[in-house]
Amino acid sequence: MQTRRLGKTGYEVSEIGLGCWQLGGEFGPVGDDTAIEILRGARALDVTFWDTADVYGASAASATGRASMSRPKWGAARSSPA
C-alpha cells in the first residue's frame, strides 16, 4: 500500500482510506463485533486512514477507538478525534 503525508501532521497514511460512515449506525445498526471486524480487515490490507467525520455518528469514532486500543501497534490515523 502506498502512503502519503497527512497535511502538516507528519503522519504517513495509506492512499486508500476506509470511510467509516457505515459504523456510525446512522444508516442501520452495525454491531461492535462487526465494526471491529471491518476495521481489522482494512488494517490487514494496510489501510491506515479511517475517515471518522463527526457527522457519521459517535459510534464510528467509538468503534475505531476500541479497535485501535485492541491493537496498539496498528498506528491508524482517524480523520476526526474520537
Task: Please provide a written account of the structure.
The chain is α/β, with parallel strands linked by helices and 82 residues long. The chain has one domain (21-78). The chain is built from 2 helices and 5 strands, in the order βββαβαβ. It has helices at residues 32-44, 58-70; strands at 3-5, 12-14, 17-19, 49-51, 77-78. The protein has a 3-stranded parallel β-sheet, with no helix packed on it. The protein has a two-stranded antiparallel ribbon with strand order 1-2. Strand 3 (17-19), helix 1 (32-44) and strand 4 form a beta-alpha-beta unit. Helix 1 crosses helix 2 (58-70). The protein is globular. It starts with a strand and ends with a strand. The mean pLDDT is 74.
Properties at a glance:
single chain; 82 residues; alpha/beta; two-stranded antiparallel ribbon
Note the beta-strand portion: 15-25%
Q: Largest sheet, if any?
A: 3 strands, parallel
- What average pLDDT do the residues reach? 74
Query: Unreliable segments (pLDDT under 50, ≥5 consecutive)?
Result: none
Helical content (DSSP H or I, runs of 4+): 25-40%
Structural class: alpha/beta
Distance separating the two termini:
25 Å
Secondary-structure element string: EEEHEHE
Rg value:
12 Å
Q: Count all strands and give the number.
A: 5
Characterize the overall form.
Answer: globular
Number of domains: 1
Q: For the largest sheet, list the strands in their spatial order.
A: 3-4-5
Q: Compute the number of helices.
A: 2
